[in-house]
Structures are given as structure tokens and as C-alpha cells.
Inverse folding.
């Protein structure tokens, strides 16, 4: 019999009941709620007469709709009402809320790992597709729909069908200036936005082992853009060092017990995957998207592809529509494309290491006068740490806006949008039509490339910016 | 939940790959949205309307008889992206009860079954062949999705079988609520939790903090 993969080990440990046909009733260790769906789910529960089964395993924070303006000045009436719902959830149902202004508030996928809530071997769900991010901790984490959120609140379990397993090995080492964001965008460009559909993806190989935890979270974050609702990295000493001493991580004797169990999680040498991919990491250069799907991506030094040269009719039609929406011409170099907005933030790239990388570029110049550039830290803790290091001063001095933590312009659910027809370089994860606001044109890239583009007023490779 | 057994309806070809849930329903239409019934009019908003707010006659769901379609024909990775269940509600409110495509976004696929909508995975060649027949006379060349027999019947009568697992099939046919079914496993859930507290206490320590 072949060995088990990381995914199998966690799945097996969470089966409360086998429902047959590949289905299981899985136990949920951590359920995260946010302002967009939390209140509604609780109302659902109350209406149907269920009780919240395990409020102690449920955690909430506002992120999607809350204003990121300094002092939260732009909070809309709707956002205020959604926040009130979360507060009621905490008061009446005993769910732990990380409220505005408290350390712990932030984008759900930033605070889970940061607080030590997201642990190796845990099963984590949230009504948000980027829950795959937590897989970077060695957890089994995935996004669910609102009916499923209600289901988890009532039962602390979820009915799931076992996905197939896929492993992506990033062999070799990253070149200088190449970030985890570039690695994952490159992979999506290679195997497509549906490349991981139906699979739980494990990222492995030398270049993944070498990543710090924040980099692994970025890598796993875009699993859903690969079509996979689950992405994961085996836990190792890097993970354990990151977790030790975090607020909700186990301490003392429990820590030792946990550690012993966590060390048994990595995939066995003879584990079998339904699909394997291998990426030569040294071939990766800084990436930037040119279209309206994350698979429409090229290196920052390349030219915009010509749909006429594409053999697959589906891809050709998609490329034509994307270029039309994006207002780009085939064959032109993507670098130098004039931009209007830069957004550094989102659950992909708003952690301390991301802000440090962007600040290192920002200190080399000033934001071009025609560009509106925002830095939105991922959490209250990230914000405070960045301020303690003086990163906020670097950004402000360079002409960036330094804002309050939340999802902000990633999803435009809080009125913070890119204007119709305007072009943005964003460190987020989706370049879909209208994602950053109706008619907005989004180019996805790393924090360093976004910062360099802000200074240049056009898409720019930070390596090419000059010192 | 609305039951699903056999559906015969006009099918609308939306032959694109990677149609994402942001396109199906914009997030700001879901924020604080009162009723699901209001979402239909916002489905595919960015494609349905032109810049001046008028309907774009080039978009398939704006044309007769596709406005009355009950089935959507799409290409690979339909409804990828966000977990928003509002994408299913928006389709449902437009009268769409089934989607035929080669593959689907994983979370959307699950969400469909929570709402009595049937996603059917069919080879791209089959979807395209059905689309060609439909386009010749969309009003009369209707498509049948028969969940009882697990077949899709093209306008020319050609049948294509599809796989669906027993659990999901049963729930759709009977219109069963997932939560009620899972609560029948309460004893197993309680037993699991008791065992887990002893075996992996570090996961439960958060309850005390
Ligand atoms: S930052 Fe963007 S992608 Fe991440 S949870 Fe918020 S809205 Fe979703």
C-alpha cells in the first residue's frame, strides 16, 4: 500500500462520519466569519431554530466592507450595519470578535496565521474562497458558500467530497527579485486558471521549503485562481518557529504534544498524487497580468501576446475580449504602460514582509503625480509593526496613502474602487472584469513591482528601475 | 429547497471559458442585499448593459428567446473565483436551473446543490454540438436535463449520460436540506468531539482564551 499525502492525513483525522460515495462529514476546527456573511448566517441559524454548536471554535472580524480610510472615515451605513451584526454575534452567541482598532482585526486570512489560530493539521473553513491561504501553515483550509457557513455553525461539521490530489514541485532556486507571488502567477500562466480544478494542491520542492511562512501563505492564496479550492505546504521548522508564542497557539506541554503530531504530517515518501507538475524555479521572472483572468500573465519584460497567434479558438476569443477590455495592443511591451492607481494590500500581499519589500522600492523615489497609490496593511498588527519600523513614514514621504487594515480596493465592496477605464497595478489576486469597480482595469503583480510602477507612473519591473 | 427532477427548457449559449463569479454578480450588489429575489436583474451586469445603462443587444441573455432560458451552456471552468453563493442565486432568479459546461469552479459547484440548481459536466464537444442545434432555432430546439435518468437530451434527441453521485442526486430529487440530514449524525459528531478533545487537546485550547 502506498503512503499518505499531507492532505490524506488531515482529511482522515477529521472524518466524523463516512457518508459513502467519497463523501464525509468532516469536523471543522476553526470557522472564521467576516462582515460580508457573518451576520446573515447567524440570522439564518436563528430563523431555522438551530443553536451555534461550538462558538468557541468560531472567530469573527470585519474586513470586506469596512472603510480603509484613516480613522475609518468612509464607513457606509451598510458597513456599519454589518459590523453591528458581528457585534451581536459576539454578544449573544459567544463568538470571539476582533473588532475595529483591536490587535487581531484584519483580513481573515491574515489574522488566522498571525494569531496562531491557523495550526498545522487543522481543518479551517470560512465563507471566502481565499481560505486556501491558511494551507501555507500546513492546514487543510478551504472556502465555502453561505449555506455551508450556516451548516458549520449548526453542526461544526461539513459534508464534503474528497478531492483529487495534485503536487507541484518548484525545483531549483528563485532568481533575485523574484517573489512568491511571481512563482504562483507563473504556475497559473503555465497550467491555466482551471489547472487545479477538483484537486487539493500541495506545493513542494526546494524553492517552497526555502520560503518563509508569509511567502507560503501568498503561494497558497492563489490556489483558487488555479481552480483549486485547497492549497497547502507541509509544516516544518519554519512553520513551528513562526507559530511559537503566538497568542492562540498552544503553549507549554500542549505545544510539545502538538509538535510531535505536526512532525508526522508531511507527505510520506511513497505518497501517490493524481497529478504532478514540476516547475523550474530559475526560469521565473517578475510577472504581471495583461488580461482579465489570472492565467493571462507574462514576465514584466515581455510583450503583450497577439491573439492572432493563438491556436486554441477559446483562448483566442478570451484574449481578444480581454485586450479590448484592458485597452491594450498586442505586441507592445507591457512595461511602460501608463497607469492611474496602485494598490498594495489584500490577503495575498499585505503582510509585513510584503510591506517591507514595497517600502524598499518606495524609498528610492516619489509616486508619479498622476498616480493614486495606496498601501493597506492586512491587519491591525501588521499596521502597528510596520509603523514601529517606520515603513509608514517611508510610504508617506514617497507619496503613498497609508490606510487602515481591510480588504479595501481588492474587491471594491466598501466603495473603494478604481474608476471606470482607469488602470491599476494591484498586489491582490483577481483581475476579473469589474473586480476593482465597474470598468476598472487590473494588472496583478508583486508588491515590489507595484511600488516600482507607482514611482514610474507606468508598469515597471523593480529590477529595471535603477538605483 | 426547490426539487429538481426533469427540466426541459430553452438553453442559452454563453460560450466562454473562465466565466468568474464576479461577472455573474458584482460584490456590491450582494453587500447588504435584502432579498435574493432582487439579484436576478444584476446577473452578468457588466456584460448585459452598455456604458449608458441600456441593454446590450449583443449579449445572449438580452435576446429573445434566450431571455426565457432555463439552461445555460458554458465552457471550461464556469463560475470560477469567489465563494459567493449569490452567483447561484442570481442565475436562479434569472430562471436558470441547470448549467451544462465541461468544468466548474469547485465552490460554485457545491453551492449549486445547496440551492436546487444542477451543474452538469459534459465534454466541450457535446456542449458545442448542443449549442449549434439550439442556435438554429432556440425557441423550439429545447434541451432536456433529466436527473432521474441522468441524461441530457439534445434537441435532435441524442442522449448523453452524466455522472452524479447518489447523495447529491437524492438531495436534489427530494429537495432535502443538508443541515437537517447532518444533524441526524449528532451522536457521531459528539463522539468525534469527545475523542478529539482527548487526542488533540491543542486544537481545543482556544475555547479557554
Ligand atoms: S483581500 Fe480580497 S481576496 Fe482577500 S479576503 Fe479580502 S476581498 Fe477576498
Amino acid at each position: 500500500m502506498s503512503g499518505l499525502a499531507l492532505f490524506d492525513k488531515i482529511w482522515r483525522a477529521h472524518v466524523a462520519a463516512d457518508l459513502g460515495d467519497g463523501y464525509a462529514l468532516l469536523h471543522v476546527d476553526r470557522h472564521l466569519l467576516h462582515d460580508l456573511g457573518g451576520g446573515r448566517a447567524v440570522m439564518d441559524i436563528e430563523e431555522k431554530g438551530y443553536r451555534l454548536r461550538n462558538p468557541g471554535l468560531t472567530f469573527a472580524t470585519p474586513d470586506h466592507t469596512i472603510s480603509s480610510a484613516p480613522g475609518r472615515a468612509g464607513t457606509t451605513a451598510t458597513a456599519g450595519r454589518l459590523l453591528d451584526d458581528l457585534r451581536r454575534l459576539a454578544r449573544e452567541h459567544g463568538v470571539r470578535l476582533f473588532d475595529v482598532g483591536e490587535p487581531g482585526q484584519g483580513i481573515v486570512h491574515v489574522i488566522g496565521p498571525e494569531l496562531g489560530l491557523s495550526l498545522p493539521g487543522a481543518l479551517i473553513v470560512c465563507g471566502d474562497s481565499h481560505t486556501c491561504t491558511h494551507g501555507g501553515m500546513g492546514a487543510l483550509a478551504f472556502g465555502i458558500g453561505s449555506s455551508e457557513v450556516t451548516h458549520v455553525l449548526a453542526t461544526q461539521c461539513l459534508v464534503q467530497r474528497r478531492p483529487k490530489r495534485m503536487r507541484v514541485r518548484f525545483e531549483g532556486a528563485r532568481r533575485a527579485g523574484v517573489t512568491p507571488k511571481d512563482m504562483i502567477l507563473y504556475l497559473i500562466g503555465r497550467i491555466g486558471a482551471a489547472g487545479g480544478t477538483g484537486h487539493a494542491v500541495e506545493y513542494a520542492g526546494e524553492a517552497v521549503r526555502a520560503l518563509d511562512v508569509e511567502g507560503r501563505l501568498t503561494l497558497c492564496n492563489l490556489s483558487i485562481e488555479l481552480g483549486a479550492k485547497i492549497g497547502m505546504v507541509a509544516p516544518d521548522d519554519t512553520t513551528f518557529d513562526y507559530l511559537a508564542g503566538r497568542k492562540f497557539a498552544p503553549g507549554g506541554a500542549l505545544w510539545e504534544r502538538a509538535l510531535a503530531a505536526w512532525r508526522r504530517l508531511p507527505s510520506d515518501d511513497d505518497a501517490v498524487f493524481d497529478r504532478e507538475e514540476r516547475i523550474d524555479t530559475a526560469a521565473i521572472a517578475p510577472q504581471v497580468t495583461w488580461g482579465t483572468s489570472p492565467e493571462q500573465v507574462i514576465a514584466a519584460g515581455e510583450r503583450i501576446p497577439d491573439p492572432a497567434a493563438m491556436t486554441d479558438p477559446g483562448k483566442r476569443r478570451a484574449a481578444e475580449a480581454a485586450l479590448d477590455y484592458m485597452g491594450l495592443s498586442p505586441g507592445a511591451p507591457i512595461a511602460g504602460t501608463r497607469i492611474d492607481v496602485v494598490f498594495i494590500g489584500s490577503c495575498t500581499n499585505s503582510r509585513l514582509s510584503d510591506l517591507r519589500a514595497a517600502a524598499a522600492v518606495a524609498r528610492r523615489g516619489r509616486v508619479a503625480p498622476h498616480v493614486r497609490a495606496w498601501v493597506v496593511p492586512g491587519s491591525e498588527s501588521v499596521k502597528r509593526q510596520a509603523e514601529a519600523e517606520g515603513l509608514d513614514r517611508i510610504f508617506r514621504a514617497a507619496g503613498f496613502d497609508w490606510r487602515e487594515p481591510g480588504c479595501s480596493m481588492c474587491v471594491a465592496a466598501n466603495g473603494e474602487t478604481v474608476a471606470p477605464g482607469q488602470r491599476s497595478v494591484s498586489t491582490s489576486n483577481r483581475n476579473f472584469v469589474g473586480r476593482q469597480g465597474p470598468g476598472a482595469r487590473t494588472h496583478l503583480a508583486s508588491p515590489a513591482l507595484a511600488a516600482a510602477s507607482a514611482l514610474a507612473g507606468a508598469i515597471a519591473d523593480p529590477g529595471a528601475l535603477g538605483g | 429547497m426547490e426539487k429538481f427532477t426533469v427540466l426541459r427548457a430553452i438553453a442559452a449559449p454563453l460560450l466562454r471559458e473562465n466565466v468568474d463569479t464576479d461577472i455573474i454578480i458584482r460584490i456590491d450588489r450582494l453587500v447588504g442585499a435584502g432579498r435574493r429575489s432582487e439579484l436576478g436583474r444584476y446577473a452578468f451586469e457588466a456584460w448585459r448593459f452598455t456604458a449608458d445603462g441600456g441593454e446590450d443587444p449583443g449579449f445572449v441573455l438580452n435576446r429573445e428567446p434566450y431571455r426565457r432560458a432555463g439552461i445555460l451552456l458554458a465552457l471550461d471552468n464556469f463560475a470560477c473565483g469567489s465563494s459567493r453563493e449569490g452567483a447561484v442565486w442570481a442565475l436562479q432568479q434569472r430562471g436558470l436551473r441547470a448549467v451544462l459546461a465541461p468544468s466548474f469552479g469547485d465552490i460554485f459547484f457545491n453551492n449549486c446543490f445547496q440551492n436546487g440548481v444542477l451543474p452538469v459536466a459534459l465534454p466541450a464537444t457535446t456542449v458545442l454540438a448542443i449549442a449549434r442545434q439550439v442556435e438554429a432555432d432556440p425557441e423550439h430546439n429545447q434541451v432536456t436535463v433529466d436527473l432521474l435518468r441522468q441524461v441530457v437530451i439534445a434537441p435532435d434527441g441524442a442522449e448523453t449520460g452524466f455522472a452524479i453521485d447518489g447523495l447529491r442526486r437524492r438531495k436534489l430529487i427530494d429537495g432535502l436540506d443538508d443541515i437537517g440530514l447532518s444533524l441526524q449524525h449528532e451522536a457521531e459528531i459528539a463522539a468525534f468531539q469527545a475523542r478529539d478533545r482527548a487526542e488533540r487537546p491543542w486544537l481545543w485550547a482556544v475555547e479557554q482564551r
Notes: Residues 114 and 179 of chain B are 10 Å apart (CA to CA).
